[in-house]
Amino acid sequence: MNSPGPRRILALALPAFGVLVAEPIYLLFDFAVVGRLGALALAGLAVGGLILTQVSTQLTFLSYGTTSRSARMHGAGDRRDAVGEGVAATWLAVVIGVVIIAVMQVLARPIAQVIAGGDDIAREAESWLRIALFGAPLILISIAGNGWMRGVQDTMRPFRYVVVGLIVSGVLCPFLVHGLAFAPHMGLPGSAVANVAGQACAATLFARTLLREKVALRPRLSVMRAQLVLGRDLIARSLAFQACFLSAAAVASRFGAASVAAHQLVLQLWNFVALALDSLAIAAQSLIGAALGARRTEDARDLAWRITRWSTVFGLGLAVLFAAGYRILPGVFTNDLAVVERTHGAWWFFVTIVPIGGIVFALDGVLLGAGDAKFLRTATLAAAIVGFLPLIWCSLAFDWGLPGIWAGLTAFMLLRLGAVVIRTRSGRWAVPGSDLQVVDKER
């Protein structure tokens, strides 16, 4: 079997990029529709959406962990067990999703009140959240579907399914929110209903694809347990990211409204760059897992550095573009001179970490594809504790402002860079075989 070339890598990466950016694009549309209702409804959507996002993003192991396990089996020529990982992940998605509905329906009001800081906004957020929560199992089914389908190197159909779901939500949203044509005028809750309808369409398409594979659909507890063990490490890694970005937002808020706005502006640009770079990381995850499952360790090592070179060049190109837009881009998003001025304090740190991210995200994908989640968990936690958090709290204590915050983010990325490069060069991650439990024992 030949090592995949540029065309194959792009065939996996481009649809994955589409899946990654589709949801943020829809959220901007949703905000624009709800924004016509006024600031209170928009604030309610922001708070409710934040709560639901924080819950669902902690469960991305259903995607990333499933891809790692499924890709190894796919590489070993065992499609039945590769798809079986998707069955197990889907059962977990349903069970966890139902638990989220039950628990969060009880906690929706107090959580909304804590985050909103005001009864009016909390009421709006609660009204949206109570409906949107019924989409939690549907979101997780789609996440699981993305996971196993990436594992068998099919990224185009998940892209289509996600786009269909978002189109349904996008069409329904203005009709239900504003009562257009014969639709009821639901206001903010109409946005939640539209979201759940779109999520139901996408989840149905993923479930139908799983059924058509004609594999056993009974829950296999041993596989589900193994996925949860892998998920434990990925959740810990995700919590380290959340601690960093929530701390950054909290410290930025202490420097005033202009600093918060500037921080969020640069952070959103960074999030977009991360999504773009992550598409190559997803391709790496799928291809590396398959190569190791097929016991082609030399191909896996070669592929790891080849995709990393691609991602580095991509990151450097983006960094050059953002460096050239130093004076222009902030003004595209705001005409507030104070905000524009504050963005300049963070801008060069942002430009610096873009090419670093090109290397880090690619090697993250390599190590995730190899199922090396324990190492990634430990490295990310260490980078957050040693590099990011001390600098960010020093930024608050010594009034360093946004440069201090983004210096912390830069240190975080540099420490992660050193960790993943050393790990990848060591070759300890490249253990062949289709059973990740056996592979973990051999590391």
From TrEMBL:
A GO cellular-component term linked to this record: plasma membrane
Name by which UniProt lists this protein: MATE family efflux transporter
Organism: Antrihabitans stalactiti
Classification via InterPro entries: DinF-like, MATE_fam
Membrane topology label: Multi-pass membrane protein
Transmembrane portions of the chain: 38-65, 86-108, 128-149, 161-180, 192-211, 234-257, 269-292, 313-333, 345-367, 379-398, 404-422
The entry's keywords: Membrane, Transmembrane, Transmembrane helix
Coiled coil: none
